[in-house]
Amino acid sequence: MASSSRKKSTSKKVLVTDLVLRDAHQSLLATRMRTEDMLPVCDRLDRVGFWSLEAWGGATFDACIRFLKEDPWGRLRKLKAALPNTPIQMLLRGQNLLGYRHYSDDVVEAFVKKAAENGVGVFRIFDAMNDLRNLKVSIEAVLKAGKHAQGAICYTISPVHTIKHFIKQAKELESMGCHSIAIKDMAGLLTPPHAAELFAALSKAVKVPLHFHSHTTVGVANISMYKAVENGAKHVDTAISSLSWGTSHSPTESMVVAFRDTPYDTGLDLELLQEIGFYFYEVRKKYHQFESEFNGVDTRVEINQVPGGMMSNLSHQLKEQGALHRMNEVLAEIPRVREDLGYPPLVTPTSQIVGTQAVLNVLTGKRYKSITNEVKLYLQGRYGKAPGKINEAVRNMAIGDEDVITCRPADKLNPEMQRLREEIGELAKSEEDVLTYAMFPEVGRKFLEERAAGTLKPEELQPAPEAQPGGLPPLAPTDFNVTLHGETYHIRVTGAGHKTEERRPFYVSVDGVPEEILIENLTETVPTESAMVDTKRASKGSKRPKASREGHVTSSMPGTVVEVLVKTGDKVDAGDPILVIEAMKMENEVPAPVAGTVTAVNVDKGDSVNPDEALVEIE
Q1: What is the pLDDT of residue 536?
Q2: What's this model's pTM, rounded to 2 decimal places?
Q3: What share of the chain is helix, strand, coil (3-state, %, to 5)?
Q4: d(CA 505, CA 609)
């Protein structure tokens, strides 16, 4: 791949990027595929002739250190060694890199430099707000490293997201030095006629190659892809068939067949692709516990623009509240919140920002009665410039008369690399380790500590249900409902672990979320802590007092305590922040409902909490 050339090729041959090593399993298997299941097939992947293989970035970095206990930099190096002929592509969130906040320019530059040195050849760079100022430093760093810079535009639908708007952005990306431009249709909104119209207009407006990326959530991405290619798209994203469809992507083999014997023929070896498909068919079984229940075609996104992953998040949160019956209210509220915030595209992290606020607006009974910290930061301009006009009344409720940032947000940040090096100290054995800590400070530090102690252990994979005697198929999973403290949960038993004399693990899903329950034989007079259920839902049986009066501080939704801001004896005024709660990946300050003295603090940092509990007591 000639990264230095930006002239559009006259050949109509379609160039294919396969997403099986990143976005496919991120979409279908919660990003849980391990490196050990990638390496055995790399030789075949490398012989196909893909333009690139997306294998890094997105959520893979977080999943590696949080769940798989793998060094993401080590994964990159191993994949590069196993794929000598195929460029590795990564997804980079511009100034956010792989995290959820903006990093200083020196962190961005250091990260891109090290990613390039360790094996990334193509950087797909986007910003959730489509604020191209947030791509500037990343693009410059990629160009400096001599790698391929692909600018990505998040596709969405709103009164401000017109063909003219997208053309303006494409021209700006081209002027910034991008070697190619991708339309990133993260919700699968592009229909065939709109894909034809958009790519026809873009191909006339810019000279660099155009790349089509979409998801098959709605079920029309294959046709949209073909129309995009007919109208100027040179590159397409697909996923090997055994990890395609649903919230994933168009099947590679199917699109190779579709383009065969046309001017767009990919020239890829279908039999080799089928071999790879069979390999991942078997690998997928290993990760059955992470399969989503939202893997089918879902055309609701065309009505409410809610991506499939966001829909499953909303469903889970409403189930936890015992409010699933209010889903239609939330779906109706999301477009209103999105309009109030100036029509941001619904992609990480803006999808969580909008979705969580919509849930709060519905469940609290009053719009913006409780406003998440992320919405406040958004309305301050800390994520960038909104595509449309902000509702000033909402902004005033959130941040009052605080100044709004109008410059590039990162211009407000001081250099961070030296501070990060000092904070992580000797745990970091390389600059890559410092960057791991920079991306996810708490999780990154824990990973590096466990590595130093030799205690890294990946999460356990649940065994597949065993067959009955005589080779009969396994029994159907046991499904039942459990009602606890007035809330009902759907439990599905998915398997059981090795039984010992003392204990046995059982694997279940609770409202669709995989959990492990450890059942222990209680021979002691008093149950020990290890005999308790070991799941993230331990707080359901919490001994905290029920919220019963005005001075009881509660959370508006289930979540985790991120910070406790008061202690017993503190004097507080009504409205003062008391706690910070994280729910749906968003942080929410919990204010004091009354003025008075804190008489009890019933939570610690890291505790799981529920809405009916008195977390702090004020008199």
Answers
A1: 36
A2: 0.81
A3: 40, 20, 40
A4: 25
